[in-house]
Structure formats: structure tokens, C-alpha cells
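Suppose you are handed only these lines of text.
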Amino acid sequence: MSDTPLLSVRGLTKRFGGLVAVKDIGFDIRPGEILGLIGPNGSGKSTVMKLIMGIERPNAGSIKVDDVEMAGWPPHRIARAGVGIVFQHSRPLHRQTVLEHIKLALLPDSLVKLAADPHVNRRAREIAERVGLSHVMHRHPATLPFADLRRMEMAKAIARDPRVVLVDEPFAGLTAAESEAFSELIRGFRAEGRAVLLVDHNVKSLAALADRVLAMYLGEYVAEGTADEVMRNETVRRVYLGGKIEARERGAEVVSDKPSILQVENVGVLYGKARALDSVSMHVREGEFVSVVGLNGAGKTTLFNAISGLVAYQGTIRYGSRDLKGMSGAAIARGGIVQCPETRELFGDMTVRENLDLGGYHLPDKMRADQLKWLFELFPILESRQAQTARTLSGGEQQMLAIARALMMQPKLLILDEPTLGLAPVILEQLSKAMELMQKTTPITVLLGEQNVTFALPHADRVYVLEHARIVWEGSPSRFEKEMGRGFLEAVPSEPAQVAQAKV
Ligand SMILES: Nc1ncnc2c1ncn2[C@@H]1O[C@H](COP(=O)(O)OP(=O)(O)OP(=O)(O)O)[C@@H](O)[C@H]1O
Ligand SMILES: [Mg+2]
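From them, the structure of the protein bound to magnesium ion can be written out as follows.
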């Protein structure tokens, strides 16, 4: 490893109106080094990356690559100088195949017409192979499962051959096995002598990769050192890591005798030829908390979308005594089934407050005010950001808003699809406590889809395991641990998922 930094940042500062999102941040990254950047949601991590990439202009500070000052340059110039970013959210082109995406990334802007060059073709295939995309090379992004879309973003970054690589939350929404495959790619960046800046809330994966870790809070520097040193830091523990998620207190296992409010019988869904759900039967009793666990592409989102009336299915879904077949999504929502989708579906141009008000428009004033007050206690950041446009919220803040908006609707049956995506550990703990309280104080029924077993088990009364479009197991959380083991989902080898997640 060379001692001269490849990327050198000093005094970096960015203000958005009155908010100082990044304040006087500085660090060096040498070639062949990975610097992990951690901090709670909204602490300024993505903003640091956008400033380095030139997507946002710094108010102050210096950004040098190989001793050349780049602060204030436009993004294309910074890219040409050897800086690349892997965004958390892919915005793929719809008409290009996976391979064409990689080819485009291989070529400088002016050379797109050379895309037919056999060398480019060969190189693009090599990269597809390296990231594990060879089996879907000729497909369009819209048909790909989540993990493959992430792989494609990684492939594009590799194709551009940057010396400085900024990777924003590569592990979010990935299973342990998928995260390991991504870690391998990032280790590859290090071995090739690139300088890597890595942000992720998966503390375990990040700590295993990073040579050094820098922690931020509210835009400011908190600590820097080895992963171990930083994780032991008092402030980092308090504002970021939080405590362990405690399992709910349960008496002896009682079998609920409440009536089912949701009954799914022999439900099947096909996307073209791909079977997304295969004779799935399950039920949820009144007041119950049911977790459906399963890998990416197992069919969780499809199941929820069928219940919410967003995809067509065979079989029967009953809500109370009502058959939901043929009802519109809006009518189902009015009946009290509210889904908080994985994709968040916020109104990006509206403010935080407007998004929440839309959720609660049907409530009487007093009830709406009380609900809002409770949600602001749950997610204080949303209270202070009421006037902020939803699209400019940080990743985790958007997730909190999506959950809050769903709760604002006061659902009878709340469906949460991967609510932990992109949330800092401390927020998970907070959300976990809120669920607990909600169950104690309201008659709400919850159906949760998760691959994060640590979050899915502690609250659940009952668990279903969904694997390759089928329910393969049902039981209590304690039986789950005995029979499946906590490592269950992690032990399943990462196979390319068969089915694209439903996007409606
Ligand atoms: N254009 C903007 N206008 C106003 N505020 C903004 C804008 N962009 C970002 N912010 C705010 O700046 C803060 C830092 O955001 P940033 O996206 O950098 O956080 P983060 O550390 O990446 O968080 P997360 O872990 O949730 O992704 C957030 O509170 C965010 O709401
Ligand atoms: Mg972010």
C-alpha cells in the first residue's frame, strides 16, 4: 500500500438552507485502501459522496485526487479524472439489456458508436461474468430481481474503471450470501489498488471489509480508527449502534383463538412463465403479528401485492368474510389493509407533512392530530423536517416517512414489506420498541415480510417461511430457532432468484 493518499478531503462543508448536512469533514484514502463511513440516518454520508462526485457543490473545503483540486468541478469532469460512484438506487435505462448497460459504461461519451467493437463486447461479457450476471446478460433491467440490479450497478462502476470508488449502501436489501458476494467484489477493488469509500448500515459486513472506519453524526466527525475502535466509541454506541433488539415477553405459548381476519387459500401468481407464488395458503388472526421470512425473490412482495389487489392471482383471498378477488387496490385500502411497500412510493415533490396528511385525510381532526403527535414521537426527525421535500430526505429518512405514512392511515391490517431496508441499527431498535407498544396499545394486526431474521422473529406470534414461491414452514418463533436455526436464511446458498419481484 502506498503512503500517498489517492483521495484527500479537507474541511468539507455543505449547507441546505439552514441545515448543515456536512460540517468540516476530512479524511485520506490511499490506493488499495477501504475507508468505511458510518453514522445514523441523515448524518451526511451520502452527501459526502455526492460532494466528492460533484453532484452537489460544496460550500467549503478541498477535494483532491492525486493532488489535483476538484472541489466545484462538474460531475463529468470528476468522473473523467477517475472517480466513480455506485448509487444505492439504480436508475436503469429501460430499453437496454444488462450487457448493453455495461458496454455503455465501458465507452467514453463520444465513442458510443463503437459499441459493436468486438473488444468492447468481450470486456463487457467478462465484467458481467465477474459480478455474477452472465445468466441474465440479455435481459432488461425491469425483469431482474433486486440483487441483480445491484450487481448491474457494480458492473457499470467496474466498467468505468475508476481509481476512486464511492459505494453507497451496497448491502441494503441483500441476504448474507449475496452480501458476501458483493464483499468479494469490493475486496477486488482493493486488490487492484483503487481507493474505496464504503457506506453501509450492515455493520458486520462493513467492519469485515474496511481498513479504517470514520463515524459521523449530524454532519460532524465523531471518531476514526479501526472498525473495532470506532464501534467501541461511546458516542457511536449511543447514537448509532443502540442496544440489542429484545424479544417480546411471551407467556406460555398460547394458540390464539381469535378469528382469522386474513385467509389466503391456494394462491398462485404467474409473471409470464415464471411462477412467483405456488399454491400459497396462510392466515392471519385478529391482533396477531405474523412474519413471512424468505430470501430476495422468494415471493414475499408478490404475496403482499396479491393481498393488496395489485397483481392478479388464482385462488382465494378473504378479508373477514369478504372475498377480495376483483376489488381495486383503493377499495382494499379503504377496507383497512394498508401496505407499506419496499419501494416506499412516496410523493417525492411533496413535503414530509403533505405525505403524512395524505395518509390521514380520512381521519377526524382530533384523531389525525393525535396520530401525528404519536408518529413524531416515534420518528422525531420527521417533526423537524415537516417542510422538507420528500425526495431530498436521506435514504433512511424516506423509509421512516413511508412507515409513518402507512401508520397514519390507522390500518386494521398493516403489511410491512422489508421495513428495515436502509435503517441504522439504532432506528431499528426504536422501530422495534414502537411495534411492541403499538401491539400493546392498539388492536392492530401486522403482516411483516423480512429477510432480516433478527428483526422478524422477536415480535412475531407466528412465522411462515417462503422459499421459491412456496410456503415451506410454519410455526412459532421459538420453534423456528430450534428447527431452522437463526442462521437459516444465511445458510441457504445464494441462487439467482427465479422470479423478478413484482413491480406494479
Ligand atoms: N437537497 C436537500 N435539501 C434539504 N435537505 C437535504 C437535501 N439533501 C439532503 N438533505 C438532508 O441532509 C441530511 C444528510 O443527508 P444524507 O443523505 O447525506 O444522509 P445519510 O447519512 O446518507 O443518511 P442515510 O443513512 O439515511 O442514507 C439529511 O437530514 C437530509 O434530509
Ligand atoms: Mg444515504
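What can we learn from it? The chain is about 35% helix and 25% strand. The pocket of magnesium ion (ligand 2) is lined by residues 45-46, 394-395 (CB under 6 Å).
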